[in-house]
């Protein structure tokens, strides 16, 4: 491999490879040469400096000026602006991901509500027949809660499995990062799906339970 260092081409043989941790802000290099390869380069030492109490713009500028005056051959580079730019881009990306996730979540609620509404007519006839046979409102309500909970549980399991598989593919294959399964967030999302399904189902169930069965029995 040939690289250009300050206008000079240096050809070196690759001896081994290593994994670079791009998430760390410490000094790190993609290519590491043996000392003799860059023995004639004008820059030989590299150091980083950070304030103990965190970033302080009032102290950074005077420090850079003083370093330039006392050590003219030292090149000082402030990486704060670059890190802030990276953090801003990452924040915008995270905001976009949350926005897309919110749209997908709202769309899933609408689809789930439509699926429940499609079966309301059949539930009305079932409730009329069961009331005639002696079923109470409390028993019918429990049956509907079990039904909606089962629908929500199936939806949650599918969503967690599909979302986990998609996240694993993106994180491992596209971003080449370590995949960490966040169980608390996954369980919270599953529980939310079950609760939302039961809530949407019960919105129409109360209307069904309050109707008289006589008018529906005439149409059977």
Overall spatial form: elongated
Number of domains: 2
Instruction: Quote the average pLDDT.
Output: 76
Percentage of residues assigned to helices = 55-70%
Low-confidence spans = none
| End-to-end distance | 83 Å
Major sheet: arrangement of strands: 1-2
Q: What is Rg?
A: 32 Å
Order of secondary-structure elements: EEHHHHHH
Total number of beta strands: 2
- Number of helix segments? 6
Largest sheet: 2 strands, antiparallel
* Class inferred from helices and paired strands: mainly alpha
Strand fraction: under 5%
Descriptive report:
The chain is mainly alpha-helical and 220 residues long. It has 2 domains: 1-78, no CATH class; 81-217, no CATH class. The protein has 6 helices and 2 strands. It has a two-stranded antiparallel ribbon with strand order 1-2. Helix 3 (120-132) packs across helix 5 (183-209).
Outline of the structure:
The chain has 220 residues and is mostly helical.
Identify the notable features of this structure and list them briefly.
220 residues, mainly alpha, 2 domains, two-stranded antiparallel sheet, 2 strands, 61% helix, elongated
Q: Topology, please?
A:
Blueprint lengths: L1 E4 L2 E4 L45 H14 L9 H39 L1 H13 L4 H38 L8 H27 L4 H4 L3
Antiparallel strand pairs: 1-2
């Amino acid at each position: 491999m040939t690289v250009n260092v300050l206008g000079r081409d240096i050809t070196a043989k690759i001896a081994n490879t290593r994994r670079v941790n791009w998430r760390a802000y410490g000094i790190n290099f993609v290519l590491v040469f043996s000392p003799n390869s860059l023995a004639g380069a004008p820059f030989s030492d590299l150091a980083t400096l950070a304030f103990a109490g965190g970033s302080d713009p009032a102290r950074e500028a005077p420090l850079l000026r003083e370093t330039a005056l006392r050590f003219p051959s030292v090149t000082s580079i402030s990486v704060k602006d670059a890190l802030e730019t990276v953090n801003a881009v990452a924040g915008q990306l995270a905001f976009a991901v949350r926005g897309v996730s919110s749209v997908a979540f709202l769309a899933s609620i609408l689809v789930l509500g439509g699926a429940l509404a499609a079966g309301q007519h059949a539930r009305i006839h079932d409730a009329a027949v069961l009331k005639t046979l002696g079923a109470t409102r409390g028993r019918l309500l429990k049956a509907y809660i079990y039904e909606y909970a089962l629908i929500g549980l199936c939806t949650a399991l599918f969503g967690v499995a599909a979302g986990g598989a998609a996240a694993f593919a993106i994180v491992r294959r596209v971003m080449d990062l370590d995949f960490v399964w966040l169980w608390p967030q996954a369980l919270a999302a599953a529980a939310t799906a079950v609760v939302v399904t039961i809530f949407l189902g019960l919105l129409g169930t109360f209307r069904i339970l309050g109707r008289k069965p006589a008018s529906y029995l005439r149409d059977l």
